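Worked problem 6 (solution included).
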Amino acid sequence: MTGSPNAADLLRIEALRARPTAEEGAAPGPDILNGLDLVVRAGEVHAIMGPNGSGKSTLANTLLGNPSYEVTGGHIVFQGDDVTDWPTDVRAKSGMFLAFQYPQEIQGVSVIQFLRQALSARKGIDLSVLELRLATMDWMKRLGMDSAFVDRYLNEGFSGGEKKRNEIMQMAILEPELAILDETDSGLDIDALRIVATGIREIRKDRPTLGIVLITHYQRLLDELQPDFVHILVGGRIVASGGMELAERLERDGYDAFRPAN
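Solution. The predicted structure is:
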C-alpha cells in the first residue's frame, strides 16, 4: 500500500485485480491489473505512467465502474465507502469524475444540455440554460473557448484540443471530489496542452481539496502540473513511487529500468 490507510484518505485502492469483461459464452481473459495498491488524499495529484498494455486505461475505467471491465479481486474505497460494486452513475454522483482519453460524440445533445443534466444528477441543482450559460462563460474564457462552444453537439466535430478542454470545463462545473484524467494530454500540441494544464491549475486554486489521478505517457504534462507523487505502472502493478525525480529517471532510462528481471 502506498501510504498508510486512514480516515483522511480520499481514495484507497487495495490489491485491485481487474480484466476486460468477457463476452457471453466466451472464456474470461487474464487479469490486466494484478494487485494494484494506491492511496490518494484530498488535494493530492498522483501521476501514473506506464508503457502500452501496462493497465493504465484499465485502471481508469475500473475506477469509474465501466461495465466493460470486471473486478476479480481487491477493493476500491472512496471517501470511506467501499465502491467496488457501485455502478458508474452512483460513483459519479458521489463525486468521482473521469476525463476520457477518447471522449465520445453524442449527436443531438448540446454541451450546455449535457452539462445541465449532469449537474442535476451530480448535485441536484436544476439551473436554467441561461443560468448555466453564465456559469460556463468564465471557464470558457479561461480555457480559450468561444462563447458559442456550448451550443455545439457534444464532441461532434471537435478537435482533440476542444474535446479535452470541454472535459476540463465539465470538471470545473461539476466540482467532483476526485478526478481521474486518462491521458488528457493525448493528441495535444504544446499550446493546447498548456491551456488544459492551466485549466487544471485554475480548478485546483478554486478547489484545493480536489484529488487528481493523472494517467499519462509523457513527462511534458507533469512538467506543467508538478504532481505530488509519480508512480510507475508495469504489468498491472505499481512498481515504483516517488516525486518528479522518478519521472526524470524514466525520461532518461525508459521503462526497461523498471521492469522486473526475468
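Discussion: Residues 183 and 216 are 5 Å apart (CA to CA).
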